[in-house]
């Protein structure tokens, strides 16, 4: 039996892929799950997906969730086998069950690694608005809100574009109402409304996201980013976080051509996101050191003995 994966069909994380790569995987809203789905209609531990004893079937089982799990529109009350082309509904979130082709194996392994990185549960902050407020406070503390472009981040954006042989690369910062590109390579503008670009899917989904053909997705077609007249088809983005773990931005690429990324490219994009995290912290420590130096100079000036 070929491995299976779940491809999300609706809501803001449309196109997100979850690979069923373990013998037993839990799915739910809590961050302790193997697959985390941050939606109110999803229970903290909603269901489990497991391999049969002979590893010849993938079985889904509801964990007593409030809003139920459905396979092809039928609510399940007992364990049910999943097959390619089935639709799995968790709460009000729909997923298509797909077989993983041999050429996708490397991407699957990489994406499973991405999904094990720390995520933030919206419930920990009460709601999405509270999480946005916490992110803005994080940006203020880091000195990133309304900040100027950064030459080092422009270089990161160029490296990302080169790794994918892509037209555009970027390092974005998510504000309250906008996405600002701290680093950019070949982008037409430095600022967009926060929910007008695919970057919002990475920031609000707290997870990496890529899609080979954006124009094939009806929900993405509504994004103003795709209505600029410059038809970019491919997108990939990896999140970077502030010290508290909140996603504050993305490192990503877009291109005119449809494509499927390779595992080393996805891993390199994630490495660049981690580099940006370290760069931001180093810049913060540098500012703090400068502020301390100025305070020491002021203190020494106030306590300099009078000389006639």
Automatic annotation (TrEMBL):
Gene3D superfamilies: 2.60.200.20, 3.30.450.40. PROSITE patterns: FHA_DOMAIN. It holds the Pfam family FHA. It comes from the Bacteria. Residues 25-76 form the FHA domain. InterPro entries: FHA_dom, GAF-like_dom_sf, SMAD_FHA_dom_sf. PANTHER family: GAF DOMAIN-CONTAINING PROTEIN, SLR1143 PROTEIN. This is FHA domain protein. It comes from Stieleria marina.
